[in-house]
Design a protein that fits this description.
By secondary structure, this protein is mostly helical. The protein has one domain: Four Helix Bundle (Hemerythrin (Met), subunit A). It has seven helices and two strands. It has a two-stranded antiparallel ribbon with strand order 1-2. The protein is globular and about 50 Å long. The relative contact order is 0.12.
Length: about 200
C-alpha cells in the first residue's frame, strides 16, 4: 500500500475538512494556556474552553457527516484516528505543562499511541489493511475532552473523597486500557494470520 493511494477517491469532503481542522486548531489550546499563565488574564481560559468544545464537536461530526452524506473515504478513515491521536496527545502535553495533568498519564497516552500507530502502520504497509478506531478509543477521546475541561475549570468538587480531576483521569485510563486491548486483539488476529 502506498500513501498516495489514500488520496484516490474522495478527498475534499466536509468530514475530512473537520478532521484537518481538529489537527490544526488543537495547538491553539496550548497557546491560550500559555497566554493565560504569562499574562494572568483569565479570559484566555474561556478561549481554551471554546476551542476544546469545538474540537470535541468536530470529532463527533466528522464521522457522523461522513456516514450521513455518504462521504466515507480511505483518506477520512486514515485522518480521523490520526486527528484523534494528535489532539489527545497535544491536549495532554498542554495540560501537563500548564494545568497540573500528571506526567505519568501523559506517558501512558504516548505509549498507547506509539503502539497503535506502529501496529496500524505495519498492517497498512504489509497487508493493505486500515484498522478502524474502536469504540473504546472514541469514548476515551470524549473523556479526554471532559478531562481537559475539568483541569481548565478546576472545580473544587469531591465525589467519594476524590476530586473531579482524579475521576476524569481514571475514566480516561480505563478506556485507554480497553482501547489498547481491543487494538491488540485486532492486530494479533490479523497480523499473525488468523484472518486477512
Amino acid at each position: 500500500m502506498k500513501i498516495r493511494e489514500l488520496f484516490s477517491g474522495r478527498v475534499f469532503t466536509i468530514s475530512n475538512f473537520l478532521s484537518l481542522m481538529r489537527i490544526l486548531l488543537v495547538p491553539f489550546i496550548a497557546i491560550a494556556f500559555h497566554l493565560e499563565k504569562v499574562n494572568g488574564i483569565h479570559e484566555y481560559r474561556y478561549y481554551s474552553i471554546a476551542l476544546l468544545v469545538f474540537l470535541a464537536a468536530t470529532d463527533f461530526f466528522d464521522g457522523f457527516l461522513a456516514r450521513t452524506l455518504n462521504q466515507v473515504s480511505r483518506l477520512g478513515q486514515f485522518i480521523d484516528p490520526l486527528a484523534d491521536k494528535i489532539s489527545v496527545l497535544t491536549l495532554a502535553v498542554a495540560l501537563c505543562v500548564y494545568k497540573g495533568f500528571p506526567a505519568w498519564m501523559l506517558a501512558v497516552i504516548l505509549a498507547r499511541d506509539i503502539y497503535a500507530v506502529i501496529g496500524g502502520a505495519l498492517l497498512f504497509s504489509r497487508k493493505d489493511i486500515q484498522v478502524r478506531p474502536n469504540i473504546y478509543g472514541k469514548i476515551m477521546v470524549g473523556f479526554m475532552a471532559l478531562c481537559g475541561l475539568v483541569f481548565i475549570l478546576e472545580p473544587p468538587i469531591l465525589i467519594f473523597g476524590l476530586s473531579l480531576q482524579a475521576l476524569s483521569i481514571a475514566a480516561v485510563l480505563v478506556f485507554l486500557l480497553l482501547s489498547s486491548l481491543a487494538y491488540w486483539k485486532i492486530y494479533s488476529r490479523i497480523y499473525f494470520g488468523k484472518e486477512r
